[in-house]
Amino acid sequence: MVIETWDSPYIVIWLCLGVLVTVLIFGTRGYSDKLNGLEAAFYSVVIGGLAILNGAVLGQVMYDKTVKYDVLGVLGNTLGLSGSLLVSGFILLIFYRYRVVKHPEEIIIKNGDLEISGSYLLSSLSIILWLGIMLGGIGVGHIVMGLVGDREGLLIASTVLIPIVIAIWLMTKYSKWMFKYIVWVLRRKGLLQVVDDKNSE
Questions:
Q1: Range(s) of the domain holding residue 192
Q2: Which of 9, 78, 172, 176 is deepest in the core (most CB within 10 A)?
Q3: Contacts with 100 (C-beta within 8 Å, 6 or more apart), sequence order
Q4: Measuring CA to CA, how many Å separate 120 from each of 25, 46, 170?
């Protein structure tokens, strides 16, 4: 069902700008350590709400009522929703990177284990990236379903699950890759703090 008043690309542009402005304010306050839990939750909800609207509107803009399986509409939904969340998460990761460079004591290696101080910015960007990956996998699965169409067969049906399986795999790995990157940045700048209590004894 098309929402006729929502099929303008200008609305998509304004929603994208709204997401960007919210993310920049969120990241700036997180970097400067002026963020509290309620504020972090508020910004996260606003980003999520704008991403949902962006997915809905972009899906309507790309909607093709002449075909049985609206692959373009689903692609618009996926790009608008998952794309907004993933881009927001990566921008917040950049802010977190600079925050950790400013406060390297928040991430240390102690006795071979990585110890991370709690941060509202880190928690929020982790959730946003997790949701972006999950919804992206579901969206791509729906796109594949539309491309498969009426064709039957176990092998064809299983292709729908491939994007979802990949998304689940990425959801289990992205956090590890993220902290590997942060540790690499700190080590490259000579800021990585390594504590070995066993050797000090």
A1: 4-200
A2: 78
A3: 106, 107, 182, 185, 186
A4: 14, 15, 22
- Of residues 146 and 80, more confidence is placed in 80
Cross-strand bridge partners of residue 193: 108
**DSSP tag of 189:** T
In total, how many domains does the chain have? 1
pLDDT at 92 over 90: yes
Please determine, for residue 1, whether its predicted confidence score (pLDDT) is greater than 50. Answer: no
Any idea which residue has 């390594």 for tokens?
A: 194
| Alpha-carbon distances of 116 from 30, 37, 39, 70, 186, rounded to whole Å | 16, 18, 21, 45, 13
Who's near 163: CB < 8 A, 6+ residues apart? 137, 140, 141, 143, 144
Residue 97: half-sphere exposure toward Cβ, Cα within 13 Å = 18
Pairing state of beta strands 193-195 and 107-110?
parallel
Length of the chain equals: 201
Whether the model clears a pTM of 0.70, i.e. scores above it, the answer is yes
Phi, psi (rounded to 5 degrees) for 116: -120, 125
Edge-to-edge strand ranges of the sheet holding 113-116: 113-116, 107-110, 193-195
As given in the structure block, the two tokens for residue 137 are: 């996998």
| C-beta separation of 15 from 59 below 8 A | no
What whole-number distance in Å separates Cα of residue 185 and Cα of residue 193? 12
Identity of residue 76? G
Identify which has the larger pLDDT, 29 or 59: 29
